[in-house]
Amino acid sequence: MTQHLHGKQSKVYSMASADELKARIAELEHELAQVKGKVGARGKIQQMSSEVVDSNPYSRLMALKRMGIVDNYERIREFTVAVVGIGGVGSVTAEMLTRCGIGKLLLFDYDKVELANMNRLFFQPHQAGMSKVEAAEKTLRDINPDVEFETYNYNITTVENFQHFMDRVKYGGLKDQMPVDLVLSCVDNFEARMTINTACNELGQHWFESGVSENAVSGHIQFIQPGATACFACAPPLIVATNQDEKTLKREGVCAASLPTTMGIVAGFLVQNTLKYLLGFGNVTHYLGYNALQDFFPSMSMMPNPNCDDNHCRKQQVEYQKREAAKPKPEVKEQEEEKIVHQENDWGIELVSETTEEELNAAEGEKPSLVSGVTVAYTKPVKETKDDSASVETSEQSLEDLMAQMKSL
Amino acid sequence: MTQHLHGKQSKVYSMASADELKARIAELEHELAQVKGKVGARGKIQQMSSEVVDSNPYSRLMALKRMGIVDNYERIREFTVAVVGIGGVGSVTAEMLTRCGIGKLLLFDYDKVELANMNRLFFQPHQAGMSKVEAAEKTLRDINPDVEFETYNYNITTVENFQHFMDRVKYGGLKDQMPVDLVLSCVDNFEARMTINTACNELGQHWFESGVSENAVSGHIQFIQPGATACFACAPPLIVATNQDEKTLKREGVCAASLPTTMGIVAGFLVQNTLKYLLGFGNVTHYLGYNALQDFFPSMSMMPNPNCDDNHCRKQQVEYQKREAAKPKPEVKEQEEEKIVHQENDWGIELVSETTEEELNAAEGEKPSLVSGVTVAYTKPVKETKDDSASVETSEQSLEDLMAQMKSL
Question: Which biological process annotations from GO are given for this protein (chains A, B) (predicted)?
Fold first, then answer.
């Protein structure tokens, strides 16, 4: 009687003795316990330990202290991060933070898991049909029962949900009525990015933007501190400039390409910089791009646009400048002078780029064939790069090259 | 009667009626079917389809063709990749390849899953105690039943296993008696790396080396084509130069730090370059480093060492040079001249680096405190960088800088 009988098939037991029925129950209960064994495979841990034993899930993280990288790794448990969009980037982001032992995660998404998502990490075929936040929470709780979760299966861009989303960012922190420590945008469309931007500008909330191109071979992360750096509205991506409804991107029969590699790398950059920001080690990168075809990694900083369309961004800029002015002069002065490199930009956006427009274009590869007027939005977040920011390739550098550059100066 | 009763607790049924018992059986069978539903959640797929429907697990990969990135994505099913070491990097590497629909994977590891591995992606707490290859194969088959697997739960460095390992690299391809297409080294120690190097030099097998530093904040990948590029023995890592037994690194109470971010990023770089190599798009990077503290990505190419200790490497070099000489001159000539930049190096190793020693050091951050004579092995694979390979930072570039460089030329 080892075959599996479902529903009405159980009627075959009508002639069985009570003992046979009880034996079958015992057998099923045992099997179910075994299969379910995965749930709660470890209990909660009250305090992170540095002890080096195979059974300690935090030993390799606490070793970051002994290695001199992080002063106080345990602080990770005090932080709350909101992840918006639990797709190819967001799900891996949430898993990395969960495995790092983050205090609390807020997960937002309104999509369902589909088999078409299986070319990216995290979700499994048996979860097809479940809501992404529900499936993610279940998997993540199994991985680390020490993490607290809040999940919201809704679209943040509707008026009603937007208010609730703002509320959870403002009051969803681990400590009662405190804001979350960081918002990570892992959404796949412009409208949702602008919604997060609007909320974070109003709240003065630090956040990271992230994105992967439709041709799957480039991506980026961008750290946004309202008032101090360019916000998402300060430097509109190309998709706005073309004035095309982005919904045309999701026409029937048209789908963007994606790869588990690119999305995993972008999630890795996002969480690595989140850890650096929260735990105070290394340097948090303001903009980091990834071009897979050439293994090219542009980085830059962007100052806010004084004429930004978002009035909360402009307010935050004024407040940021007041705070900066109130600081002792000598240290601040030097930093500011370093930042303002290009003052002749009409937009009021200063770029500190390590790469030229030509390099960017050369590294960018083929553009996807999209509907007219729409182009890849997130590989080139700023429209213009200064002509004088010429780059010199070390390995190919010659006297002739240097002479040519001197002339241009 | 919805609580779960295991083992001897079934005795509470002694007073129950046959109908109650049958109801309990039906309930248990239903629950078990649900829990088990995950296994084989989709059947095998005979041919990759580009159809854009939610139920197609390959739609987003096949879209790479429409986007102009890959000419013939379906070819992925013809390739076999061997992954050696199924730890923090190797497991994610295997998962990415599985989700990409690779034809066949050979997995090698002799370790068991431990709770101490839970700070990296892939393995789950309920798998603690299972062999890594067994746990990985089970998870990966669930994710994509189209992939073929061979798993070996042994240490490749013993004499007996080494012969078997060589044999599987040589004959383990999808087509009968053909070699695998690529070997990916994801091991965590020098001995295993040298073993893979020895095997690949003898077989002329292309492979990628990968590694993550003990302080968890840097890593690298390196593409090795025996005879054409430096092999792992051509440029010994620092750990050899110090003549210290690396086993001291694994003393009781001492453990390396690790992060899911760094390991996920290195796995991403490894699989992305594997895809570029197998499917023929973009440029395969020979050496790509990652420094998490500064988001710094050194890259370079290394020519083989004519005095390499490995005689198979020296033989492959002779054969490679013969093959190159037999090619039509004009195209080859130009490439070779470009490669040989520094001829005064005693080691016979030519570096084509985009970064200076100073930049490398500046970006390297704190060294872990290890036993004396041992240092981080894999962030600086070559001992000396030429003095004349000065680098120019675009954003800070001034007339003075250029003048100084001209003098040095």
Answer: protein ufmylation
